[in-house]
């Protein structure tokens, strides 16, 4: 019967969830040793001016090379870091390391750091980490961008807005990442904290695909909205010349994607870094992305 089938699929999900929980526990213990051994690093991906292709900023993206599993995707391990209550510690390291790296860039490009809702929920602690990362590196506040997603507003927490205001007061720039994917996009913009909207890759890709007039109209309306609110716009996930040309034609000012550069680990990252978590990181040869 339908009832029986329903119960069956419930048991299936329960089993799948137990399996996932066990996998996450294994990942969590591996992560704890990864932090001790300095196995985490940051890769940087350029964000370019849409017409001149000049590098405006570079986004710092966490990388973890697991001794057995190899590269683990951040979409997989960042949630585990959050659930383990380690995001404050790791996020602080990311901030300090990204600011230190960017302070050495001769082209003066900004650095963009992803900040998860769990980090933002820490409020004053995050603001303190940002201030310290800037002070320790000597990086000017206006060269640091923090990328947050709409999910930070889901809790409906007033401290979220206070924290965003405090970060703006420090002088850093705020980017609304993955724009278009959430449910309350417009409400996120009413307080004017953000400098930049980042159009999610799914829209970038679909807008340039034949037979997808809806996505194209959505991208056009995001750009109109951004002009009205005096916001910069970055289109993420640009892989082809057609996608880039469309975004330029629609008036998008900044582009990011494999067409302009993949996330790359800087050459000196494993030798010049201060010990991330109180231990000396292993020196290892750096493999540069092609
Ligand atoms: P995100 O912030 O939206 O980052 C963009 C993702 O798209 C990155 O994946 C990047 O490598 C990928 N990407 C960029 N250009 C292209 C392209 O042309 N084609 C395709 N197919 N992909 C492209 P990545 O590095 O796997 O990161 C995934 C997510 O993990 C990030 O999404 C971000 O939400 C999170 N993340 C990464 N580093 C950190 C971090 O330091 N802290 C926090 N809290 N989250 C992070
Ligand atoms: Mg991002
Ligand atoms: Mg994004
Ligand atoms: Mg994303």
TrEMBL record:
Any idea which UniProt keywords this protein has? Membrane, Transmembrane, Transmembrane helix
- In its UniProt entry, what is this protein called? EAL domain-containing protein
Per the database record, which ranges form the EAL domain?
24-277
* Provenance organism: Sphingomonas swuensis
Covered residues, full protein: 506 to 795 of 795
């Amino acid at each position: 019967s339908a009832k029986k089938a329903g119960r069956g699929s419930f048991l299936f999900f329960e089993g799948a969830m137990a399996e996932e929980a066990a996998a996450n526990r294994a990942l969590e213990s591996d992560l704890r040793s990864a932090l001790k051994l300095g196995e985490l690093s940051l890769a940087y991906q350029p964000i370019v001016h849409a017409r001149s292709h000049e590098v405006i900023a570079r986004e710092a993206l966490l990388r973890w090379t697991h001794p057995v599993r190899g590269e683990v995707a951040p979409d997989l391990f960042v949630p585990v870091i959050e659930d383990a209550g380690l995001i404050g510690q790791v996020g602080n390291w990311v901030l300090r390391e990204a600011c230190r790296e960017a302070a050495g860039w001769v082209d003066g490009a900004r650095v963009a750091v992803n900040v998860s809702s769990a980090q933002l929920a820490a409020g004053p602690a995050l603001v303190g980490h940002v201030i310290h990362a800037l002070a320790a590196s000597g990086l000017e506040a206006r060269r640091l961008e923090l990328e947050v997603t709409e999910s930070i507003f889901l809790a409906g927490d007033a401290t979220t807005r206070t924290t965003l205001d405090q970060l703006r007061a420090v002088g850093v720039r705020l980017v609304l990442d993955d724009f278009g994917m959430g449910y309350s996009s417009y409400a996120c913009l009413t307080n004017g904290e953000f400098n930049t909207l980042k159009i999610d890759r799914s829209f970038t890709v679909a807008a340039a695909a034949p037979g997808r007039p809806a996505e194209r109209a959505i991208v056009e309306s995001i750009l109109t909205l951004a002009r009205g609110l005096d916001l910069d716009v970055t289109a993420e996930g640009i892989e082809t010349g057609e996608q880039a040309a469309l975004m330029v034609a629609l008036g998008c000012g900044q582009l990011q994607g494999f067409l302009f550069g993949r996330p790359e680990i800087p050459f000196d990252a494993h030798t010049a870094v201060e010990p991330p978590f109180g231990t000396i990181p292993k020196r290892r040869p750096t493999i540069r992305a092609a």
